[in-house]
Each structure stands twice: as structure tokens, then as C-alpha cells.
Amino acid sequence: MAPFKSVRCFWHFVACMVMTFTAPSLWALPAEKTLSPYFFIEGGEQGVDLLPLSSTRVTVTLNAVIARIKVVQQYKNDGTRPIHARYVFPASTRAAVHGMRMQIGEQVVVARIQERQKAEGTFGRAKQAGKSAALLTEERANVFTMQVANIMPGDPVRIELEYTELLVPTDGVYEFVYPTVVGPRYAEVPEAGGPARHQWLKNPYLSAGQPPAETFDIQVRVAAGLPIEAMVTPSHTTEVAWQDACQADVSLSPT
User: Fold this and answer.
1) How far apart (Å, rounded) are the C-alpha atoms in residues 14 and 11?
2) Residue-level pLDDT at 179
3) Residues 6+ apart with CB under 8 A from 102
4) What value does the mean pLDDT take over residues 2-31?
5) 3-state DSSP call for residue 149?
């Protein structure tokens, strides 16, 4: 394999790690990107029964061309009645979800594989009984959703999502992207009555110059397996702690 030349890091509204090799492209996959996970509130109205995002913490390990990502997000029902919602994770076709864990108040829900019809029946019975419940499904290729029923007023919600992603080179450059996040989307009518079946798949975003309301932190460990020539972070101030010539830890500076 050709030597590992350099690593460049960009931290903006999209946080990404760019790695440059001299080797030619090995894969020809669609140029899709993993989008930010978010909540979709069923039947909600803008500004009513808020489920604000308070923090996101991302831990990334880059082992050559494989990125291993763990995302931890904190929400809270600041409304006055129970909320039914969908947690949506639009992944690229190069990503694979390995686990999802949700804590609603004191209740912990761990996603597990179950035959779809049986799983939907179990979720429906729990929802009708007024119990907090969650259902993880793959709506279409690599768009994962977790339905969450009966998030009670005042309940904090903690989401832990783990996935891996294959880094595919473009002109010899390997790039890892983790898009930063905003709060949940709301619909004035239940999504089934909306004009488009998959309207909730659209990812929200912040306008340029609009500061995020939540806290965001990302920690990246680069384990190249070969000597790293250089690391650059042109858009954000970061701190780099070198472990050896092949490994380094990158984090956002506290300022």
C-alpha cells in the first residue's frame, strides 16, 4: 500500500476528517453522505410540546478506511402532554448500524432484531397501554427510524447510537463526515396525512450564522496504521495529542 501522506481536519457546521492516500480508488459506490439523526414529532405543532436537543457527544475511531462512531444525544420533553415521536437516522449506503439504546426517564430500551410484523404488534400494544416503548425499523435502504411512544412531560431522553462507515476515496482523498445537528422537526398533521410519504426523511439544518442551541463535542482518534505526515484544521481550533507517528487524538478546543 502507498504511504499514508496526510490528514486534514475540517470542523464547521459539518465536522469532517479528510485523509489523503496516493493509492487509486478501490470502490465505486454512490456519493451519498450520512445525515444527522433527529426527532420527528408526530402530529406536533411548531413551538408546542417541545422536545429540545440539549447536547450531542460524538466519539470516532478511524482505523484506516473504517470509521467507528458512537453518538450520544440528550433531549427532554418540555411540553405538557405525552409525545409520540420518530428518531430518524439517514445513513449513507456505506454505513451499518450496530446498536441503539434509548433511556426515557428511568426506563432503558435496547434495540433488538425481531420479525417486523411481530415487533410492530408488540410496539402497538405498549403504545395503547400508555407505556413508553420504542421500535427500530429500516424504512428504506439505510434509513433507520425508531418510533418512541409516550415520552411523558418532564422526561429526559438519552439516545446512544453506534455505527460504522466505510471511507471511500475521491481522487485519492479519504473523507469522514459527521454533520452537526439541530432540534426536532414538527408536523402540523400526522405524517401519514402529509403530502409525501417520506417527508420526515428531510434533514433539518441551521441557517448560515445561526448559533446552535445545544452543546456539541466530538473526539476523534486516528489510527492510520502508517506514519501520518501532517494534520490541519482550517475551520475550527482543535487540539491534537500525538500517541505515536501513526496515531493521534483530535478534539475541539474548549474556546
Assistant:
1) 6
2) 73
3) 87, 108, 109, 110, 111, 134, 146, 148, 157, 158, 159, 160
4) 38
5) strand
- Tracing cell 457527544 back to the chain, one arrives at 57
In three-state secondary structure terms, 208 is coil
pLDDT at 81: 84
Cell 487540539 belongs to 239
End-to-end CA distance of the chain: 39
Interval 51-102: pLDDT, tens: 888 888 999 998 888 999 999 999 988 888 888 888 887 777 788 888 888 8
What cell numbers appear for 71 in the block?
Answer: 453518538
Q: Where are the beta strands (DSSP E) in the chain?
A: 4-11, 14-21, 38-41, 53-63, 66-76, 83-90, 95-104, 107-110, 133-140, 143-151, 156-166, 169-170, 173-179, 185-186, 215-223, 231-232, 238-244, 247-252
Q: What ranges in 25-177 are assigned the alpha helix state H?
A: 116-128
What is the b/e burial string over 90-115, where b = at least 16 CB atoms within 10 angstroms of the residue's CB?
A: bbbebbebeebebbbeeeebebeeee
Domains recognised in the chain with CATH numbers: 4-252 (2.60.40)
Phi, psi of 91 (to 5 degrees): -90, 160
253 burial via Cβ count (<10 Å: 0-12, 13-18, 19+) = exposed
Average pLDDT along the chain: 69
Contact yes or no for 62/220 (Cβ under 8 A): yes
Q: Which three cell numbers stand for residue 162?
A: 453506534
